[in-house]
Amino acid sequence: MTERLPVVPDVVKQVLSRVSNQKLILLEALTLIHQARLRLPPEVVPGLLDDTRDEVVAATRSVSGQIGQLLMTKNPRWTAPAAPNPSDRTVWDEGTSAERLEWLRVLRRADPAGARNLLADNWSRESANNRAEFLAVLADGLSIADQDFLLAAVGDRSRVVSAAATTLLTHLPDSTLRRDMRKLAARHLTIGRRLLRTTVKVTRPNPHEFAPWPDPDADPWTVLMSRIDPAEWRRTFNGDLLKLIAGGETELDPLQSGFRLAAIAFRDADLARVLITQMFDRIGPKAPPVVDGALWAMLSPSDSTAQLDRLLTHPMARPDLIASAATVFSRP
User: What's the mean per-residue pLDDT of the chain?
Assistant: First the structure.
């Protein structure tokens, strides 16, 4: 049996074993594995397909590989149920949380506005867990028409729901959130010229400046940069911020975590390449390199080849690091 997709690195397998009792984190991990075009190790597939939580089983199917497909043919209870009929509300009104979630996904694909309106009508009656999971459905076909509903959800009493709504607004081009984050960042990061040299000045945003949005739950610059598309940097800062990062501008060191999250959130291959190259340059030949799987997965095919070659020739590269880097790429 030939597998089409590479298996996740061992470290991901270890993480999955540690979060098995935390459903939302486990579901997010399985979703990220699917997005990275990776598959689960064969030995963990039967246990996840036999999980008592329907949502976990559903998320496992798409990352179970060929072995999972074979197991599902042998055991009918692991097989995915037939897609629900979006015109029949019975499942929404009477089904389990997992059944209702799947029905809402199908409705969203068939009628985006109808799914959003249905969710809004039932919002106050749903549990916090349901609100967070149902809200994530709006990522499929996300548009500016969803903004008003998402703005209301940002003020939800549950921090999990508020964070989910904020994430969706971050991925909505020209949303109010993104415009506000660009304005805030531009007040605290300025690019100028002094004689023949480009200069950059960075000051620290205060958490209260994020209002009316929730206070940042981490370092303000990390949160702020993670919400700005790198494609918008030039017009936000009136200068080539990517070039300054590549040049090792020390004023930008406090923003490194935010740059990393921006590259991942907006799947920016150029920024990922610069950050990985910068890592190699900073450690030099006497320290082992770091393989950041999430960043490496953003690279274009040509950049992934170049960075893998650089890793292979690094004197401190261990075999496990090389294996981890190679498994990140869908076409290593």
Answer: 90
pLDDT score recorded for residue 329: 62
Q: What is the pLDDT of residue 284?
A: 87
Same domain membership, residue 23 and residue 163: no
Q: Which residue did the predictor score with more confidence, 134 or 322? A: 134
Of 4-18, 84-98, 99-113, 222-236, give the lowest mean pLDDT range: 4-18
Instruction: Please indicate, yes or no, whether residues 182 and 249 belong to a single structural domain of this protein.
Output: yes
Residue 83 domain flag:
no
- Which structure tokens are listed for 129? 């867990």
**Residue 141 structure tokens:** 């076909």
Phi, psi of 238 (to 5 degrees): 55, 40
> Are 259 and 229 spatial neighbours (Cβ–Cβ below 8 Å)?
no
Domain that holds residue 320: 176-328
Tens-digit pLDDT profile for residues 176-227 = 999 999 999 999 999 998 877 889 999 999 999 999 999 998 999 999 999 9
| Domain limit, last residue, from 58, 78, 98 | 78
Let me know whether 220 and 297 are in one domain: yes
